[in-house]
Amino acid sequence: MEVYEAALGRRSVRSFQPKAVPTALIQKMLEAARWAPSASNIQPWKFIVVKDPSMVDMIRKVSPGIFGKPTTLIVVCSDQERAYRLGGEQGRDYFTIVDTALATENIVLVAHSLGLATCIVKSFAASAVSELLDIPDHARPELIVTVGYAREVPKPPPKLTLNEVAYTDRFRNQLEMK
Amino acid sequence: MEVYEAALGRRSVRSFQPKAVPTALIQKMLEAARWAPSASNIQPWKFIVVKDPSMVDMIRKVSPGIFGKPTTLIVVCSDQERAYRLGGEQGRDYFTIVDTALATENIVLVAHSLGLATCIVKSFAASAVSELLDIPDHARPELIVTVGYAREVPKPPPKLTLNEVAYTDRFRNQLEMK
Description:
CATH topology of chain A: NADH Oxidase
Distance between the termini of chain A: 25 Å
Number of domains of chain A: 1
Oligomer: homodimer
Largest interface: A-B, 77 and 77 residues
Structural class of chain A: alpha+beta
CATH superfamily of chain A: NADH Oxidase
Order of helices and strands of chain A: HHEHEHEHEHE
CATH class of chain A: Alpha Beta
Strand content of chain A: 15-25%
């Protein structure tokens, strides 16, 4: 699937079939995440693939942002220790958030191109997730990606138009279009 | 170009040819950015395409993270006012960073698939950039994407292996591979 088509066609899916995601596909999503850009190439990220049904269920219970019953979760964590050691306070407090988000977008785009459905979740009890997954103090769950096969793909949400969000040369200066 | 190939093949380029980027291609990058996922669909982003050579030059001078002479910059801003109005403090302080990063990854992947070279820059004097581009107080430049045609594409940087960054079911639990 073309990148442009994937970026426009990907939807946030909240309704899944009870069908496992093949390991080979998860591996491709993680490879794409691993090659995301990273400030000073610090790569302040860890990815936990949760497939054990009882663990998925426990995480669902502490995550108001998870809808439906995804068969797989990818918990995207920042590695605060590594980020601070290699990038100082800015590395720990800012680059971790940016870099894990960049990697997460790679995950959802590759997933979409492989026929999988995902949703990026920000609403979860981080401390409970950390405890369930044995995440050490020096790491932090930033985002959870739900992964599965869509039961239902929602229609595109309303989006601001290009003219409402983009400018040329100065803020509020009308975007030059082709 | 396949999404997976784009995610793995994209490099951060810091050396550009003096060749303008067609408006139609910039428009595709912005369309992809506009369709990025966004918490509660708030879309707390603004994109300023900087093509005026003297403006590009002035921004370069206040941006230690810009290398080479890109012909185009896309300044990715958060819209703090919108984020706070629709998402409260968490919206303003956290979702803005995540969502602008998700959109930025769409930009660089689509750019790569169109034969363009980019680099995501985090090191710049935000207040100077805001003044140059008339960015109001309620918005903030988060990231700058340099865009152009590569003069030289660097080799892939050293990356942590999949086993070093990914686990199954629990932190430090070896990743299940196909």
